[in-house]
Amino acid sequence: MASTKNVTELIFTGLFEDPEVQRVCFVVFLPVYLATVVGNGLIVLTVKVSQNLHSPMYFFLSYLSLVEISYSSTVAPKFIADLLSKVKTISLEGCVAQIFFFHFFGVAEIFLLVVMAYDRYVAICKPLHYMNIMSHQLCHRLVAGSFLGGFVHSIIQILITIQLPFCGPNVIDHYFCDLQPLFKLACTDTSVEGLIVLANSGLIALCSFLILVTSYIVILVNLRNHSAEGRRKAFSTCASHITVVLLFFGPAIFLYMRPSSTFTEDKLVAVFYTVVTPMLNPIIYTLRNAEVKIAMRRLWDKKENSGME
C-alpha cells in the first residue's frame, strides 16, 4: 500500500472561489491575525514583567495566550497568503505537519482551560489552602501535562494518517489540512480511521467540556457562601473563562461530534475557531479583568517614560 503514495502535493479549494471575495477576506483576516499575535503577545509580556500578576491564574493565562498565538499561526498565515493565490498548494509533508501542530496546540489549549478551571475551583472553594495546593511546582507540572497531552493526541492522529495511501485525486475541499478532508483523498476505506479520530478528538473535547461545566456549577454553588464583593470579583473572573470556553468548544464540538460535510458553513465555522477566536481571548480577559488592565497601563506608562528620557 505504501507504494501507491504517489501524491506529493495537495491543492486547497479555499474558503471562497470568487477572487474579489478572497481579496476582501484578505483585508479582513490579515488585521485579525496581527491583532491575535499582538494582543496575546502583550498579555504574555505583561504577566512576565508585572509583579502583581505572578499568581497561578495569570501564569496559566500567559501560557494560554502563548498557545493561542501558536495555534492560530499553524493555519492563519498560510490561509491568508493563499487568499491572494490563484492555486493554493501544500506538500503532503507540510499537510501532515500542519495537522500535527494544529491538533497539538488545540488539545494543549483544551487541557489548559481545564487547568484554569481547577485553579479557579481551588481559589474559590478552598481559599485558605490555595497557595499550598497551587504551588509553583504544581503549576509547572500542570502546564507540562497540558502540552504532553496535546503531543500524545497529535502523535496518535499522525500515526493514523501516515499509514494511508494517497494516489489521487489531490484536491482538499478546505482551506487548511485537517483529518476528515484528507481522509477523503485516501485510496482506501477510512471508516475505521474516522472512528478512531472521532474517539480521539471528539471524546477529549466532549469530556473536557463536561468537566468544565461541572466545575463551574460547583464554583457557582460555592459562591453563595461568599460576600457580595467576593461574589462579584469571582464571578467576573469566571465569566471571562466561561466565555472563552464557549467560544472554543462550541464550534469544535459542532464540527467534530457530527458527520463531516463539505458545506461552506462548516468552513466558516472553522474560520471562526482558527482565526477569530484566538483574537477575542485577550480582549475578553483584559476588558473584564481590572488587574490586567492596570498592569498593561503601567507597562505602557513605563515605556513612555523610558522613551522620554
TrEMBL record:
Function of the protein: Putative odorant or sperm cell receptor.
Organism: Sus scrofa (Pig)
Stated family: Belongs to the G-protein coupled receptor 1 family.
Record bears the keyword Translocase: no
Keyword flag Amino-acid biosynthesis: no
Annotated transmembrane regions: 26-45, 57-76, 96-118, 138-160, 203-223, 235-256, 268-287
Membrane topology of this protein: Multi-pass membrane protein
Gene3D superfamilies, per the entry: Rhodopsin 7-helix transmembrane proteins
Gene Ontology CC terms: plasma membrane
Compartments in which it is found: Cell membrane; Membrane
One Gene Ontology MF term: olfactory receptor activity
Protein name: Olfactory receptor
